[in-house]
Amino acid sequence: MKVSDAVTLKEGRLEIVDRELLTHMMDSLINEAVFSEGDQKTARLMLIKEIAKAANAIPASIQSLYEEMGREYPGFTVPAINIRGLTYDVARVIFRKALEMNVGAFIFEIARSEIGYTKQRPLEYAAAVLAAAVREGFEGPVFVQGDHFQIVRKYYFADAAPEVTYVKGLIKEAIDAEFYNIDIDTSTIVDIEKETVKEQQRNNFEMTAELAEYIRSIQPAGIDVSIGGEIGEIGGKNSTPEELRAYLDGFRETFRAGKGLSKLSVQTGTSHGGVVLPDGTLAKVKIDFETLRTLSDIARKEYGLSGCVQHGASTLPEDAFNMFPETGTSEVHLATGFQNIVYDSSALPASFRNEVYQFLKQEYAKEWKEGQTEEQFLYSTRKKGFGPLKKKWWDLPPDVKDPIMKELESKFALLFTKLKVTNTVDIVRGTVKPVVVKKDIDSSLLNA
Questions:
Q1: Residue 285 — pLDDT band, cuts 50, 70, 90?
Q2: Could you tell me the pTM of the whole model?
Q3: What is the structure's pLDDT at 401?
């Protein structure tokens, strides 16, 4: 059986000739691509991405939906989901549940830091997500996002030029991989020693403007990449209206390259991954929803943004999620809670979990902080167990994976319901018109 039995190349474009066969081939195609090396890996991932577009699963910018949310908030909060491990399997679950619940407004994302420790470069991540879309028969816009494309403070203040160059390189790599949604995070270089709030935020809005202008200069014709900004380092003090206005006013004065920001990340009391107690349980977090409501209202009414973005929310109690639509939050970022389901599932063999934990204790011993219990150390580092052991995770048998995916499916169903994104397919398709960007492929792979 060859790829050309399911897909053909006509006048430089791929066309599907046997959709059912293609669906059944996708498991092996993505596995071979992810675990190939060098140019062969790149070529295979590119082929999968082009196959997905031929199957009408098209990478897209959420910009026009967010512009509509800025004009008239439709009452839902878009979940942005970070997948750190078992990416293809987890993405399949998400698409399957989205089809069942008529969900169109959802984002797949990966952060700068996650790209490193999960060993998923943008092209691999995008291809795994799109392969899952084909496998599940999902058609329409697929939103893939660079999350926390961040300026690292210590590198920036040691020597700004190489750090900025690195982030621009990451942005280009992501856009080339068809990430048409990028969240810029330069809140790390806010200078709280300055006398006025605007001067405190100056580094932030000026660097956001520079990176946003770079995005606009390299985005494909016909596509406005959705760009997010950030004013509050997550885990710090809560953001204020004064900070929001200082940042957005400063950005408006500085940015001169087309459409500006579509959303703004703020701090309201969460921390990434939650706060783990000595016994390994999570501390209860109290979100300031009134701050979120106030800031989203200002962002929407005064600046035309979709609203504010909440990070670090996946470990919140279930009864908190309905508050995001109620407070006008436009987007919520979710990561660690899904990782926890995978690691803590009774279906995951204890022997395999212990193998991962032993690896972490050996390879990341230098990250074991003084005073940390073993439970705290493992909780804070187990996100790094996916990348180096990726093949072992992918090769877990169905009797292990399937029950874990069922648990995740229940979680996604709950989140889609609480965030009120069920029955959003029509508004997404009415506002988002995906542009197919043609990419070259290695046609010899069709005969593989």
A1: low
A2: 0.95
A3: 98
What confidence tens digit (pLDDT) does each residue in 67-105 have?
Answer: 999 999 999 999 999 999 999 999 999 999 999 999 999
Written in H, E and C, the secondary structure of the chain is CCHHHCEEEECCEEEECCHHHHHHHHHHHHHHHHCCCHHHHHHHHHHHHHHHHHCCEEEECCHHHHHHHHHCCCCCCEEEEECCCCHHHHHHHHHHHHHHHCCCCCEEEEEHHHHHHCCCCHHHHHHHHHHHHHHHCCCEEEEEEEEEEECCHHHHHHCHHHHHHHHHHHHHHHHHCCCCEEEEECHHHCCCCCCCHHHHHHHHHHHHHHHHHHHHHHCCCCCCCEEEEECCCCCCCCCCHHHHHHHHHHHHHHCCCCCCCCEEEECCCCCCCCCECCCCCECCCCCCHHHHHHHHHHHHHHHCCCCEEECCCCCCCHHHCCHHHHCCCCEEEECHHHHHHHHHCCCCCHHHHHHHHHHHHHHCHHHCCCCCCHHHHHHHHHHHHCCCCHHHHHCCCHHHHHHHHHHHHHHHHHHHHHCCCCCCHHHHHHHCCCCCCCCCCCHHHHHC
Q: Where are the domains of the chain?
A: 56-341+396-433
CATH for the 56-341+396-433 domain, from 2.130.10.10, 3.30.230.10, 1.10.3720.10, 3.20.20.70: 3.20.20.70
The pLDDT of residue 280 is above 70: no
pLDDT at 233 over 80: no
Across the range 213-240, mean pLDDT stands at 89
